[in-house]
Amino acid sequence: MPLFTKVIASIGPASSDATTIFNMVKLGVSGFRINFSHGSPDDWVKYVDAVRNAENRVGRPIALIGDLQGPSIRIGKVEQPIVLRKGDSARIVFGSEARGGDEKVVPMPVKKFFDFVEDGDILVMDDGRTRLRVADVQADYVEIVALTDSVITSRKAVTIYNKEIDLPPLSESDINNIKFAIAHSFDYIGLSYVRTENDVDILRDYLRRFGKEDIGIIAKIETKSAINNLDKIVEKADAILVARGDLGMNFGLEEIHSLQTRIVEKALEHRKPVIVATQLLESMVEKPVPTRAEVVDVSTAVEMGVDALMLTGETAVGKYPLEAVSWLIKIVNFVEKTTLRNEFANISRRSRTNIDELRLLFAKGVLELTEDMNAKLVVFSLYGNTAKRIASLRPSIPVYVGSSNKSVMRKLAILWGIQPLYVDSNNYDEGLQKIIQKAIELGYIGYGDLVVATYGLKEPRQRIEIQRIVS
């Protein structure tokens, strides 16, 4: 499995059975995403149980991410796919369901959509593959003309190009899904369609109210407002996700690489975890092998220094979910062993500058000591804070982190370079010895290796142990 860049898979109909999820974990998946925009709580409970069972069988912590729908506009349920050729007309009507098919009627349950849309607007769907021009607007229906060959299916998000409808950041459905995530011990919640840092504050306040402020908030950057407020959003969020699908619905496709670079660099500078998602291996929804362009795209993201890559449709609805995971890990492993080593200097320069906080300076000092000595770094962490700081500095060596807190380990599982290991100890000195011994037992540390071992900065005396493993 990858040492530095982690792999996250989305669970859906194609990957919902326990065997597939277990096999993904065996291949090296470090986290799973459950999209609350699709499926039902009954489905999600099965997914959670399958992930936790796989985690126990493999003996490796796995992060669970719940993805909120957020203030998006989604069409309702379509019984049959609506196939449109370029130039075909169709109608969007107010309602939650429609037969679809040859009727070419698209249900829209959001009444505000009809108040906001105007003649000539361009509607974008399906990660930019579907583009529709508004030809006529009435009180409860909208006539549209297809600008691309398209297939419209249920629950697809709709963007009005160059416009943002003012909707609350969290709906009643989102609140219910937050409660579900809390009840089932999710590790992160993905906040969709973030516009300002206030959206992050609102979710944080809900989590605080429910007594679960420790759940990490992943701010998904996908709107023009988010790009305009990027600095403040990155400061407030626990992690950042480059949501390329919706970015492609709000910006020109030619802008996406530049935007991805900007978002990743900003996350590195602020020392926040960053994930790249959507269409990494899109062709594998239908085919068992990725395209050359997709391989280059994934390789580029790894060389940028992202914490994780997230598969979406490839594993949620694709025909080859295991093959997609296998290929992604194969590409990441190859890049880590070859070209990534040439990028460490650029990556670390962005993440290790402008440091003035004592605990971060301590983490930097321990990390650079270990790197300079060509040693192995072992950390015992009750709360995960020291491990997070080290990961944010983009170590060029794997970091073996021991903790007795499973929730902490799961959050660490998707961070750059962190290899979390469970050890049963609530004492720092005892925990340090146990994590060294466990790393030896698992073959991460071998006889003759030089090891730097520590825990978080403690007053008034700090322990940093340097030892050669001799017996």
Strand order of the largest sheet: 1-2-3-15-16-17-18-19
Give the second-level CATH assignment, the architecture of the largest domain.
Alpha-Beta Barrel
So, the CATH homologous superfamily of the largest domain?
Phosphoenolpyruvate-binding domains
What percent of the residues sit in helical stretches (DSSP H or I)?
25-40%
Rg (CA only): 23 Å
Percentage beta strand: 15-25%
- Low-confidence spans: none
What is the averaged pLDDT score? 94
Figure out the total of helices. Answer: 17
Domain Pyruvate kinase C-terminal: 364-459
Pfam family, one: PK_C
Protein name: Pyruvate kinase
Family: Belongs to the pyruvate kinase family.
